Amino acid sequence: MKNNIGQPASKQEPLLWLVAIGFFMQSLDATILNTALPSMAASLGQSPLHMQSVVVAYALTTAMLIPATGWVADRFGTRRIYTAAMALFVLGSVLCALAPTLQFLVMARVVQGVGGAMMLPVGRLAVLRAYPRDAFIRAMSFIAIPGQVGPLMGPAVGGWLVEFASWHWIFWINVPIGIVGVWAAWRWMPLNDQQPKRAFDGVGFALLAAGMVGVSLALDGLSGVGMGHALVAVLLVFGMASLAAYWMHALRSSQPLFAPSLFSVRSLRVGLLGNLFARLGSGAAPFLVPLMLQVGLGLSPFHAGTMMLATVLGGMLVKRVAVQTVLRFGYKRVLQVNSVLLGVMIAGLGLVSPAQPVWLIVAQLFVFGAINSMQFSAMNSVTLKDMTGESASSGNSLLSMVQMLAMSMGVAIAGAVLAGYADMWQAREDYKLLALQATFVTVGVMTLAATLVFSQLEPDEKVRSAPDGHD
């Protein structure tokens, strides 16, 4: 049997399954971890309100390395890099499961992040090279299915493992899947597909990475976890200086990581900034919701994880109407209104209390998931809709980097705000619940800033292709 590019289908179908395995592992790991944070904190002798560094370490590492993944895959081939990425992800998972301290766990998450940063982009690149343009969309749709199943399973599976086994199993579960993936990658990934050597902007990469790390660590340090205010100020200054230096370097470089000319496209620059500000809130919510349910309301991990399925179901259902909604009202109106609704829903989660009926909390989570999914679909699509040719690849990498950076910064800011409120109300018996409620309101108000950014879109912006709902 031959496919439409003349190669045996048996040689290409395993490639799709292989990339799908990587996508599944990443999406499962992202959602399974949040439910386990309170139990991990208790086991490691930490406050559950100070566990944001576990999430930040992975997201920041991924954001930092995304700009280099394309060049590395071209230089060494997709088989070597994808196999190494899966192996590092498995190694990081083993180290996480064995972590005796929070500091060890954070470093293990960095190792996991190195593998995760390369896994999906390199897998997507391998599929892009193996399939013609008309078949690529169908191939990516197949790969995306496990990415939707992972979040659907993650909260409940994570809660079950924590409650009936231990939090260590949320990492051990990656090992058998990853080992199969490493074997399959070495067997099925294309061999010798290196591309002609091209220059890599090492200086620009170093400046951009230093800037992201500096700013994110400074925000994380505001929570007061092992970092003085003086060091926070120094990190913030050097982080901002590195980002400014990168921009000046890119302006005079012949082959920068991201050409400044990309930002001449209005939809891209508005979409990137809108993604950044909107995801500060939506990226913090998956970190805060399990804390609210378990620490604030006293629910069991499994009960909390099961309730969080409502956000996933809401998100999946709204994808069916996302295209029609933007077609009817245009990007500008949809994103302006939806950004307000997103901020209001996040702030509304701050009204959750032990006296509130469970069904009402589930309803809030369902509506939040639906609005959040609409936001992702519309703003991802508007960001990339005018990208063509070589700029499409650069724009996609830049969007992926901004998404992970925004999640890192959102969780770091939420952790700092949560720690500040907890310190302020520590004398009260219910200070943890009060701190969580106030943090939701603060993060929700912060999310409203995205409305100001999306107001800069042209009023007649319409859909030219189906919005990309994949996060």
Offer a few descriptive terms.
disordered N terminus, 471 residues, mainly alpha, Growth Hormone, Chain: A, 0% strand, 17 helices
What does this structure look like?
The longest helix has 36 residues, at 9-44. It is built from 17 helices and no strands. The protein has helices at 9-44, 52-76, 78-97, 102-130, 133-164, 169-172, 174-188, 202-221, 229-252, 266-282, 285-296, 301-329, 331-348, 358-384, 390-424, 431-447, 449-454. Helices cover 78% and strands 0% of the residues. Helix 5 packs antiparallel against helix 12 (301-329), helix 13 (331-348) packs antiparallel against helix 16 and helix 15 (390-424) packs antiparallel against helix 16. With 471 residues, it is an all-alpha fold. The protein has 3 domains: 1-195, MFS general substrate transporter like domains (Growth Hormone, Chain: A, Up-down Bundle); 202-256; 264-471, Growth Hormone, Chain: A (Up-down Bundle), CATH 1.20.1250.20.
Blueprint (SSEs and pairs):
Blueprint: H1 9-44, H2 52-76, H3 78-97, H4 102-130, H5 133-164, H6 169-172, H7 174-188, H8 202-221, H9 229-252, H10 266-282, H11 285-296, H12 301-329, H13 331-348, H14 358-384, H15 390-424, H16 431-447, H17 449-454
**Would you tell me the structural class of the helices and strands?**
mainly alpha
Rg = 21 Å
Can you say what the CATH homologous superfamily of the largest domain is?
A: MFS general substrate transporter like domains
Q: How many structural domains?
A: 3
Keywords: Cell membrane, Membrane, Transmembrane, Transmembrane helix, Transport
InterPro entries: EmrB-like, MFS, MFS_dom, MFS_trans_sf
Protein name: Multidrug transporter subunit MdtD
Main location: membrane
